[in-house]
């Protein structure tokens, strides 16, 4: 018996070069067709104003909040016993003013909740115009 010598079998190999070419084409396609959102680049034109004092409004109610959370309405001390009683105090201070502007002057160290209390009382009283006062930093 004559056995044939086993023929040398060549191992199959995988050619990665076409695979890399296809992946690069897909990557380039995705880079070209992707749109990038620019959330951090908002273009805002802010209004300018003079540094002069704003005119006193006849229909405003001044509410002051100090660092300890004490309240003043038009320079009269008022105890905060809840949003509903405070809204009654705002209505009393408004008198016959139809749509007064609530001007909140809060100390920089006042609790945040104190300011929210004033805003909630104004909402209950039906006053939608609320503004805040600030002061410019000195020594700069």
Number of strands: 5
Q: Look at the structure and give the CATH class of one domain.
A: Alpha Beta
Radius of gyration using CA atoms only: 36 Å
> How would you describe the shape?
rod-shaped
Question: What does this 3D model show about the protein?
Answer:
The structure is a single chain. By secondary structure, this protein is an alpha/beta fold. It has a domain at 60-132: Nucleotidyltransferase, domain 5. The protein has helices at 17-33, 83-94, 112-125; strands at 60-65, 71-73, 76-78, 101-106, 130-132. A five-stranded mixed sheet has the order 3-2-1-4-5, covered by helices on one side. It is rod-shaped. The termini are far apart. The mean pLDDT is 80.
Short description:
The protein is of the alpha/beta class. Helix content is 31%, strand content 15%. The protein contains 3 helices and 5 strands.
């Amino acid at each position: 018996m004559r056995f044939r010598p086993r023929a040398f079998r060549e191992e199959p190999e995988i050619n990665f070069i076409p695979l890399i070419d296809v992946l690069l084409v897909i990557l380039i396609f995705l880079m070209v067709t992707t749109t990038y959102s620019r959330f951090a680049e908002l273009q805002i034109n802010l209004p300018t104003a003079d540094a002069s004092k704003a005119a006193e409004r006849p229909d405003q109610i001044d509410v002051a909040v100090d660092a300890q959370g004490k309240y003043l309405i038009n320079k009269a001390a008022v105890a905060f016993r809840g949003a509903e009683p405070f809204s009654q105090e705002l209505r009393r201070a408004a008198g016959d003013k139809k749509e007064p502007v609530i001007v909140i002057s809060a100390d920089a160290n006042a609790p945040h909740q104190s300011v929210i209390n004033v805003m909630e009382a104004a909402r209950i009283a039906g006053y939608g115009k609320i503004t805040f006062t600030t002061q410019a930093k000195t020594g700069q």
